[in-house]
Design goal:
Helix content is 19%, strand content 46%. The chain is of the alpha+beta class and 151 residues long. An 8-stranded antiparallel beta barrel has the order 1-2-3-4-5-6-7-8. The longest helix is centred in the first third of the chain and has 28 residues, at 4-31. The radius of gyration is 21 Å and the shape is globular.
Amino acid sequence: MISWRLTFCYLPGLMLMLAVVLCPAIVNASSASFPGQWQQVASGTDGCETCWVEISRNGPVLKVTGKDGWFAVMHLGRAGGGFSAEGIGRWSEGGDSHYRGQPFDIRIALVDRHLYMDMTVKMEDGSTRAVRAIFDKRRSAKTSRFPVIHS
């Protein structure tokens, strides 16, 4: 039978071992960076070389604004070992988008330094449309593969 004294001697060592094992996960969690401007690099619909999204963070809430006239509010989460957020949004009433004024559900995830977006737009006739895109973080003109675009 193991004595309590022996158990308490091993407890600090066990705690140190757990800290060493979990440290990389803690570092990766703090390096997840949604905020900033993201340039679209691929889309499930028509391509848009000048499309981008702007993400700002306030605690566990993200505000996402699309260059092409939509906005969303999302809550941070963590699924499948990656970083993700889910929320709702609406396309702007103005503009010439065929989604004008329509509400949507949205999910984004950070995977290998790319932002993956999956939007489900609720149309007036009750149908839904999927909008999917992949974004890369915008960098300054000196260090970026993408030029800085001024609107």
